[in-house]
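EI: anyone free to look at a 411-residue chain?
SC: sure, send it
EI:
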Amino acid sequence: MKKSAKPVVVILCIIAVLAAAFLLVWQFDVFGIFKEYKVVPELELKGKTEITLEGGDSFEEPGFVAKIGTQDATDKVEVDYKTVDTSKVGSYELNYSLSNTKGRNTVTKTRLIKVVDTTAPEITIKGDKTVKLQIGTAYKDAGASAADKVDGDLTKTIKVDNKVNVNEKGKYTVTYTVKDAAGNEAKAERIVIVSKQSSGSVVYLTFDDGPSYNTIKILDLLKEYDCHATFFIVGQNIPGNEDILKRMAKEGHTLAVHTYTHDYAAIYTSPEAFWEDNQKTRDLIKEVTGVEAKFMRFPGGASNTISANYCSGIMGTLTEQCKDHGYEYFDWNISSGDANADGLPAAQLYDNIMAGIHENYDSPIVLMHDTGAKDTTVTAVAKVLKVGLSEGYSFEALDETVSPIHHAVNN
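SC: here you go
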């Protein structure tokens, strides 16, 4: 070895010895000199590591826990929440990182945030949701607005289906639909009721429990005065009286359901028993006339208490179930009084009816009965029609344009 090379070798040996010594000290660190450098943080995410979030909703951190050695370090975890944009559909990685106190041994965890759009826009109808007009009155739709949590204002993309005919009495639906960029569709409806003009109020005469031979007399009177009424039919009275039902339908009267048996002890034992009985009448009306009855009346009215003798709370259940069975139910706000007894004086029934009509109800709905025992009711009807028409009233059948009268439920 050349003499000049000896110092270099010595220096290299010294470096090697020092490096080895450092490694030994680092490895075993008997005195804890490098403890803070060597510690590896602990980081654990709470909740799911993959979260699906509806567009427009705020991200709520499920949480995380962290330690550096034995010390809590949750507040030292770095999270860049700005990488997640919940206003835009897409997948985002949310990174959590933590280093030890010397900035070493960084630990990273990732949570995947998927932003989706499955929520339909929201349509807000301007003005009244139900509009009432008289025939011939111009209708100007008030419109609607629409907003989506992701796409923002969608008002300009609303499609309106408006088939309101102001020259024909009826119940019309104005439909508003809108779709967002994800294909989610929203729909809203406005009801427009076009009713017949009258110099006075419209009166709705209703007859329960028929048909019978007295029904024929009432139909004759209605035809004579060019008026219409509503018949709440008891199904067991239909056989043998099919022609009466056909005449009702042909002459523009409303056929409605009043159960099949009208037997309180049978129909009010359970909701199932009631609807089974009721449906039999609806089916018979359809079979005889082709008319699908939309309206019904409970025996005793929705306010009856006798039903409590057979099933507690049944009327509350039945009234709530009407819509599900495709019915609107009607009670009454004027009673002729003919339910109290057979053969009551016609003058008394007439007075009861006219007193009620003169109360100026919004929709005067008169309760009467057309069974074979109600001869005086027929006489009273004749005078009610004659006098009522002379006073400017008109007599119409219930239809979808009429707001239903509902009694308070007592059972």
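EI: The mean pLDDT is 92.
SC: 👍
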